[in-house]
């Protein structure tokens, strides 16, 4: 039997199309022939042909660049099952979702993004999802709270039937036979899940129509008198996987950083800075996922070159950490990351106060956050 370490995690499969290649080569030579003809006839036709020659030369050049990128297409066949045979345990991963305007970015879109991440095929006790709402919208928070209730049904359903398309709006836009199965049990559960999603969608749309999801009391009291560009920090742990169950669903945390008119907020860059700091304090402290195929190790965020990940000494760590502000919890978390340690808090609620500190509008002043 082959050694699992020697087996590839993916296979590159060439998808050559000889007919298309021949067609592209023919077009290329025709274009070259046209350019040669134009060039040799410039003296007889003057400025008009010179302009045509320049335009056609530019077109030929850009066409060649485009075709060269498609000349040798490949497909990749992955073998994710081999990952666990190579490493004893999968790393923890923090997932970031950003939104800034509940009108331009309707909450139902944000909700579908979050639900697809919560249902990702990965051990749920090693995942955490952070939603940055830079518009401080109670609509967004309300939608996420309602989505967390639906997620308790949606995540087990996806994993039970190995659903590949895990954004509900996309999944339920197709026939159940397309992305599932034909058994009676599956059909019944599919219909039930669709009804639950439609109920969620209607709740969110009704809240959007009413401008406010509910009275701003209780859990929503912090949104009272909050303006989009002038409001205190709001951090809510919507769901915490306290038992660390691999078959539950991940932590879900809502973050709206403090904004004050007298402090520049640096738009999305500022929001991402706060996400980096909060997930280092009140999170599972893994590498973070910020988009399609976009993973970053925490050591890199703390200014450590990937080439030096194994050469961290005390002095180097102190020099870096001295630039990260006054939060003792952030410095402690960063120190552990630089030394290759992972020390997530046992309880997210216990870390919220420290997270509020780093999410303040003035915290970055005098630090190196956002300057490099």
TrEMBL record:
GO biological process, one term: cellulose biosynthetic process
Main location, first listed in the record: membrane
Transmembrane helix in keyword set: yes
Pfam families (UniProt xref): Cellulose_synt (PF03552)
Residue ranges of the TM segments: 21-40, 46-67
Xref: PANTHER family: X-BOX TRANSCRIPTION FACTOR-RELATED (PTHR13301)
Protein name, per record: Cellulose synthase
Species name: Fagus sylvatica
